[in-house]
């Protein structure tokens, strides 16, 4: 209870002191309430103006002068760890320039391509294709799959070879490219720039390859080229006439995209046929292959059924029993056309090393030393505060004192106003 009373008394004393604090007393001291009010009001004005005069210049020095670069520190041949430290301390003021304007991609980019399993399987080897070619010489119906199987797998071999060649060419093209290194890129910007460039090159390669292939397919159909395998037109040897082939009510003379399920005939009649899952017969070898999804090559029972209809020569061909493909395709029933559109590449891996790029860059970095700036600002604040206290505040006090005395003079010269008193007369 005593402590609370003492605290309350102290607060009351402080309030009384502040309310009666007077920096501009008159001589002799006045007891007039109006004059005391003017003097105390002038004191409050002086204190507020003094606070503003001291605060505003300090704020200006801290937040305005501090934004101007004062001292630039330059460092050459720094390590990658030093660069990361500088970037964490001065991310906005750090600027680095490489010792060379251009840096070859091959010094910091490594690329690998992983092709679909079919491109490394026994099914695209010369021995397998020779075995199928021997069986195609037998007396077969024109739309028997064995008649065109050798050319189908040869086309598949061709696409795998083209894809590997294009992939190797793409790696050479990337290695030959040079990265603009006039201004060293940050790790984030570097990764984005290189990833975009790799995607651009990969897309341009796929687009140009697909454009060339589509041009060949369209030119073949428009010119009406006759297939020696009679896949698009049937030749009548007796009357020397040709008739367009038809697949699923689609005429090859009208469209080159006609296809039907690949068949093998088990007897002399067309009604005795066996479907080959995953393979199609079309107006051209390429169209039939593009529609196919190769699912039979992943199924052991389907593969055995196909092999059971082949004839194996006693000599002349070195062949072995092909194993089914072990891995599954990325999606169910994905066609060969989709595989070719991806350049037969199942996945591609790119390793982008910022450390190797930094080593080739060998940068010289400059940054602002904030410590020197703060030291400068501290000295500036002390100087400004001393200047204000020593010169501006006395002048301000003198001006307010003169204004206060002028107001008091006017108050003293003003005539006293007497309020009229109304007398009441009793009668």
Describe the structure.
The structure is a single chain. The chain has 427 residues and is an alpha+beta fold. It folds into two domains: 94 residues, no CATH class; 244 residues, no CATH class. The chain is 49% helix and 15% strand. The protein contains eleven helices and 13 strands. The strands form six sheets. The protein has a three-stranded antiparallel sheet with strand order 1-13-2, with no helix packed on it. A two-stranded antiparallel sheet has the order 3-5. The chain has a two-stranded antiparallel sheet with strand order 4-12. The protein starts with a helix and ends in a 14-residue tail after the last helix. The relative contact order is 0.17. The model has no long low-confidence stretch (mean pLDDT 80).
Task: From the structure above, extract its key features.
transmembrane helix, 2 domains, 427 residues, single chain, membrane, two-stranded antiparallel ribbon, alpha+beta, three-stranded antiparallel beta sheet, transmembrane
């Amino acid at each position: 209870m005593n402590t609370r009373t003492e605290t309350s008394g102290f607060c009351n004393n402080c309030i009384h002191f502040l309310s009666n604090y007077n920096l501009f007393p008159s001589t002799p001291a006045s007891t007039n309430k109006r004059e005391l009010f003017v003097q105390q009001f002038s004191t409050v004005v002086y204190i507020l103006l003094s606070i503003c005069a001291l605060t505003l210049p300090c704020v200006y020095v801290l937040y305005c002068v501090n934004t101007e670069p004062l001292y630039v520190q330059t460092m050459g041949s720094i390590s990658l760890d030093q660069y990361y430290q500088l970037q964490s301390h001065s991310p906005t003021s750090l600027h680095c320039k490489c010792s060379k304007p251009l840096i070859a991609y091959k010094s910091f980019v490594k690329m690998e391509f992983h092709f679909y399993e079919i491109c490394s399987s026994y099914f695209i080897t010369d021995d397998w294709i020779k075995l199928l070619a021997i069986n195609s010489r037998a007396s077969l119906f024109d739309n028997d799959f064995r008649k065109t199987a050798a050319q189908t797998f040869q086309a598949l071999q061709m696409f795998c070879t083209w894809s590997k060649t294009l992939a190797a060419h793409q790696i050479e093209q990337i290695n030959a490219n040079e990265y603009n290194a006039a201004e060293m890129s940050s790790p984030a910007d570097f990764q984005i720039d290189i990833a975009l460039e790799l995607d651009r090159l990969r897309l341009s390669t796929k687009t140009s390859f697909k454009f060339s292939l589509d041009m060949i397919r369209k030119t073949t159909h428009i010119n009406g080229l006759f297939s020696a395998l009679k896949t698009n037109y049937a030749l009548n040897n007796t009357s020397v006439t040709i008739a367009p082939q038809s697949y699923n009510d689609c005429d090859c003379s009208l469209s080159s995209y006609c296809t039907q399920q690949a068949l093998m005939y088990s007897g002399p009649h067309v009604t005795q046929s066996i479907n080959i899952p995953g393979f199609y017969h079309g107006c051209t070898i390429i169209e039939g292959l593009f529609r196919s999804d190769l699912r039979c090559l992943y199924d052991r029972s389907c593969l055995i059924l196909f092999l059971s209809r082949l004839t194996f020569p006693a000599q002349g061909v070195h062949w072995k029993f092909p194993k089914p493909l072990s891995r599954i395709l990325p999606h169910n029933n994905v066609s060969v056309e989709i595989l070719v559109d991806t350049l037969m590449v199942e996945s591609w891996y790119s390793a982008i090393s910022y450390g190797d790029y930094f080593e080739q860059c060998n940068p010289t970095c400059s940054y602002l030393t904030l410590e020197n700036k703060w030291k400068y600002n501290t000295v500036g604040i002390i100087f400004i505060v001393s200047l204000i206290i020593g010169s501006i505040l006395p002048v301000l006090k003198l001006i307010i004192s003169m204004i206060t005395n002028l107001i008091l003079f006017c108050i003293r010269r003003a005539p006293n106003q007497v309020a009229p008193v109304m007398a009441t007369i009793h009668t």
